[in-house]
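Retro notes - structure team

What went well: the batch runner handled both jobs without manual restarts.
What didn't: labels got mixed up in the shared folder, which is why I'm recording both outputs here explicitly, each with its sequence directly above its tokens.

Job 1
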Amino acid sequence: MATDFRQLKQLARALGLTYQQLLARYHAHQGPDAPYSGAIGWAQRELQRVAAARAQQALRTGFADSQVCHRDWAPHAFSLDASVLARLAARAEADRAVLPRITPGHYLNAALRTAPRHLPRQLACMDDFLPADGARRNQKITLSIGAEARTMLSTLRITLAAAQLPRSQPAVVSALAAHFLNQLLPGHSPHEAPSGNTTGD
């Protein structure tokens, strides 16, 4: 029970709620007689929906910016994990039915704009992404991204150099892109919001 309490408090914090607010919303959505044991699963699903909604919004915002302020976008050379690059290309191809001009760069731009800003969290994302032996095959590609994403890359490069990890940038960027793609719900175009309620009533 203590473990459940701690986990629910962590989930509440991630959702921007207090423990009491999370339980109140759980019962409001699931009914006053909903068992306490179901609160963790419900909160985890809420967190996934909120993350998906934020990812979709970041993608929509970035795409609109690239069309309206296209002069602020510029090509940038990347070295990305080949499997992540394939996922970026596949997602862009699927979404072109709705947005013919969308490219892998729009997803990477959104991933960088919404990425954690603190190095420990960035490295934790990389550690989760890398296999046990650390082996990944990188592929070079040039993609257009916005000014904010380029600033984030510049900051990341400086931060990794200061931490004596200058060669980690391809792995970190690939991990951030993979994390962003994982947040996007399959089958939802950039024009669609994820179904279901988020933390709003």
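Job 2
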Amino acid sequence: MPTDPAREIVKAVDRLTTQVRRLADTMTTPVTTEPTTGSAALCQPATARAGRYTHGKRHHRVDDDGAAYRDALLVLLSRAARGVLTPDEGPLLRQHVEHLLRDRDQLAARVTTLKHVARSNRDHHHSAARALERVQALADRLDADARSIAPDAVHPVAAHIRAALNAPPAEA
């Protein structure tokens, strides 16, 4: 049975690639601080990535857009995808992911709180609008009663109510 030389070459290259991968996996890969993906953050100066500090085991972001954090996470994810994470990088990747999950949970809780506040404010607004309508209706009834006595009469209480409703809001 004749063999195709091109197929034999492809098989040899495949075996060689497999061996190189195995050798690379056993070697300790140096840790790099630059992402291996096409991140736009690569073009940013180091000062744009500064702004994080560590207090104890908690990371705090100070006036940054998260570029350094994303870069570090992209490096770890890229290395994990290639299967070349060092023993120290696995826990670091987990720490980054847990940090993102905590941030997400805190943001979700904050969104829930803000929704409750917005709903409460809307309810208060509707209540105030209904109360205002009732006060205006009262002033109209008072004026109607006064006009039943004299055609051009204005009830003094209704005049005070209208003046109060038209007055600019008091400063707190």
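One thing worth noting from job 2: The radius of gyration is 35 Å.
We'll revisit the folder naming next retro.
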